[in-house]
Amino acid sequence: MNLKTLILATTATAMFAGTAMAKDLTIVSWGGAYSASQNNAYHKPYMEKNSDVNIINDESSPEAVAKLRAMNEAGNITWDVVDVVASDAIRLCDEGLAMEIDHDEWLAPAPDGTPASEDFGDLIVSDCFIPQIVYSTTFGYRTDVEEWGGKEPQDICAVFDLENFPGTRTLEKRPINNLEWALLCDGVAKEDVYDVLETDAGVDRAFAKLDTIKDNTIWWSAAAEAIQSLADGEAVIGSSYNGRLFSAIVEQDQPIKMLWDAQVFDLDGWIIPAGVSEDKLPLIKDYIRFATDTQRLADQAKYISYGPARKSSAPLVSKHATLGIEMAPHMPTDPANATNTFLYNYEWWADYRDDLDAKFQAWLSQ
Amino acid sequence: MSEKDIIVSFSEVQKSYDGVSLVVKNLNLDIQRGEFLTMLGPSGSGKTTCLMMLAGFETATHGEIYLNGRPINNVPPHKRGIGMVFQNYALFPHMTVAENLAFPLQVRGMSKAEQEQKVKRALEMVELGAFGNRRPAQLSGGQQQRVAVARALVFEPELVLMDEPLGALDKQLREQMQFEIKHIHENLGVSVVYVTHDQSEALTMSDRIAVFNDGIIQQLSGPDDLYEDPQNSFVAQFIGENNKLEGKVTHVNGSLCDVELDDGTKLKADKVNVNGVGDRTTLSLRPERIEFEPQGLENIVKGRIEELIYLGDHIRVRMDVAGNREFVVKVRNRGQKRELAVGQMVDIGWAADDCKALDFVQ
Amino acid sequence: MTDTTANGAPVLTTQDGTPLKVSLARALRREKMRSLVLIAPLLIFILISFLAPIADMLFRSVENRIVADTLPQTVAALSAWDASSGELPGEDVYAALHDDLVIAAEEKTHTRLGSRLNYELSGMSSLFRKTGRRVDRMDEGNYKEQFIDIDKDWGDVETWLFLKRYSPKYTPGYFLNAVDAEYGVEGIKMKPEDERIYLYLFWRTMFLSMLITGSCLLLGYPVAFLLANLPLRYSNLLMILVLLPFWTSLLVRTSAWKVLLQQQGVINDTLVWLGVVDDLNRLVMINNQTGTIIAMTHILLPFMILPLYSVMRTISPSYVRAAKSLGATDWTAFWRVYFPQTIPGIGAGAILVFILSIGYYITPELVGGTDGIFISNRIAYHISSSLNWGLAAALGVILLSLVLLLFYVYDKIVGIDNVKLG
């Protein structure tokens, strides 16, 4: 082989590799059961339809915000689609790290023709955010606690009731949700919670309420810890994501029950990193359009008990893919579960998160 | 020699590390008070093990060691009161020379003033009076050696053990230190057990030498006896230079015997370690006892000069004698030119007494 | 051939008359260049991967160009405003703010500024987001009123005081935060008691790290001694056991500690079964400082054992023998002769363990509960979650300075050349 053919061959290979690269799609998500559900509901059917596309799964969502900023500073974006919670999406949007999109242009309308922006409704909490699921942070409790004498917690305030429901609690190691629940159980009306929290006195009041159970609480930072504590009997009642509790209760058959009262709805969805290459955009767009249509969102609920973000998907939610049980009653959005829900105020937390987090940490360490 | 004059006594001592083979086979040895006794032997011969058992760092597998008549098998090393000089001196690197010397005095609870005085005296003894504040690493090898000796002596033990203490020094320094240690021994009258594999060191310093091989003492005697009257082939080989001739005993005549070499040469030899007629034997012959122009000697043979090496005070002549091509003769350099040339056939001879008939070794 | 220097000593020269020193330096230069080329890859690597990030971190902890970059005209206009007057700035400032924000909103940098300023004052994030949405719809003229109409905070002198304070390109703000201080009306003051956290965390990090270092030393010393003195086949096995923690993932090890130490865990169950502990008063050994100390000691133990082992291995057994032959008991021989010679290993191990434990955050996060977490947990939080990299950098700089200070103290007391890693 002379030099010329060698160069030609190399170039050809490089070009081939280049086109192959263009069909790689790096999708960042949370890993575990959640990624598995996305893989089943979105990735597999998409790759079946588009055999030239190769989806690469990256499980970096927990540190996506920091990594996106680092990538942005380095000027080298290697991710194409990123799964984040709504508050992170807002932050990324504020920081200019996520791309603002036109939801009606990017997303498919509902089967009946309703435009996407209407189908998703006010779940589009940021211009950069493409909602995917509604999940909730709620409580689970053990059903075999002898000290409770057969009583079962009926509402959120059982968490603060050490007299009737003694035992160790487990709560997330952050102020969000905990402060709201504390105020709710200290007699603040639901609609006034954030107004009260805005004042120093309100914050003190929330911490004072939390003080009553501080010595009986294990603080978790990874969701799996909470489930583990409940399963080990290390804690008798604790907060976690409803999907995690579902898998502990239904799939692993643990003696745990859900307490849906005052569950806090939160959203999870996609963002597109700002600065992805123009060549990649059509593929990303195509994938997003596919993965967020009414059927796909409904399909995901077969694998995990999170509610689809589209209104039009709700009637299509069917049975669990392997267990065969009806999924609707396990959805946080199911009317029976959603009798008393609490709305997480993203805008408010975006303002107060830094300050309250410092206060919360100081309170924890006292 | 009375019981009181014996400071150390090994009685039927055996030592095995692995339970399969014996490193020390059956040791019986009395060491006299004030004696300089050297344990000499190749490495692995068991001499260091014996020393370590005496010091208390190894326990005897069988038998008993007595110090001043007391059995010491169960006495820990620090209660034995034996000074020891180690192969690499083992001077404590984090202490100054003076602190090193004071260490044995401190652990004996001696007063500060007494310590200082003794340290000073010990340093003067080894002529290192000005070096008390130095660290060992700042001293030369010879100086470290002296400190090690001084430290082993400063608490005035009756017995000092030395484990190849001069091994790390160069030749000149080693010879100088040999004399110094010898003098210290003579001046203080302390008993010394000295381990070495260097035979010239052993010959220079010792009152008695125990030659070790294969876990057994091959011979125990003074330096001159060891050289002049080796009791077996190993000792003859190990101590000094030695020519070997192999043959068969044909006739025994009192302390002498006739030996016929394998090539038919007949020789007369001193019967040392053969049983009788018909035994195979190794004849041992010192190179300096062989004469050119032999006159009135019992043994005269012909040999061919193979090589001449000029060494100043003597000339080394390598010859082919009775089939042995490594036969060496040392000729004293008397000044006048000798008519020796390679290839020459000459007569050489030696006295029957200088030719020892020893056990045959393959 | 010889010359004479000023003080009279002759200067040696080579045959051609050049001073010997010059000639030697010339001869050595080539050699030096060659060795420099050899180490160049490493040097460049260290520069890029280590020194540059540290320099960047130092810089980030004071850098504050975002305000002047996003609101250049406002900052210029504000400089003329008398902050102590207690009055709102004039219309010109509001007009400048309008112009700046129109550009910023177009480039979408106003929200970035908002989140930056929100670190210092809650509400800034939404103030800028809200204002940015409406700024292009403003009418010309009378901006002051229109801004106050959007959000009453624009009519608050405090907002403007705050903006003016953070106008400079460099700010001590992050460092103030990192030592629990803040700007008050009369200058810098400490934060209210219930908001102070970092100083306490720094103290706790140091204290717990020392405790962990101490327990690593206590546990590791005998193990290292055994390793150095056992026959080879046993010591190899022991070495594998020592290194075992390295081969299991951090999370697996930490989870194992949970299973062992928690109240319903193996140890408590055993103690209850043995009747040592009452079922209702099970020991709390995890999710607190005890948990952090136990888990971290376990994880960092090899870092203490290995340097100790490598030092102990070089200590000839003849030292202890010599000490014993000189009349020292086992203890004296150990304490006066063996132990001092292991100090370089102790120093190396202690420094390693201490520095590693200062920077560890995953384990404390998982087993430390509330009183067992370290300053590094907060740094990690600000890096990955709150994105307040400036504060994280300031905390990092302080931590780095503390370590350097401890190094200095160590050098003064023990001597840094008295550290031996192998």
Structure description:
The complex is a heterotrimer of chains A (366), B (362) and C (422). Chain A has two domains: 196 residues, Periplasmic binding protein-like II (D-Maltodextrin-Binding Protein, domain 2), CATH 3.40.190; 156 residues, Periplasmic binding protein-like II (D-Maltodextrin-Binding Protein, domain 2), CATH 3.40.190. Helix content of chain A is 42%, strand content 17%. In chain A, strand 1, helix 2 and strand 2 form a beta-alpha-beta unit. The longest helix of chain A has 20 residues. Chain A is globular, with a radius of gyration of 23 Å. About 2% of the residues of chain A have low confidence. Chain B has 362 residues and is of the alpha+beta class. Chain B has two domains: 231 residues, 3-Layer(aba) Sandwich (Rossmann fold), CATH 3.40.50; 119 residues, OB fold (Dihydrolipoamide Acetyltransferase, E2P) (Beta Barrel). In chain C, strands 1-2 form a two-stranded antiparallel sheet. In chain C, a hairpin with a 5-residue loop joins strand 1 and strand 2. The N terminus of chain C is likely disordered. At the A-C interface, helix 3, helix 4, helix 10 and helix 14 of A face helix 5, helix 6, helix 10 and helix 18 of C.
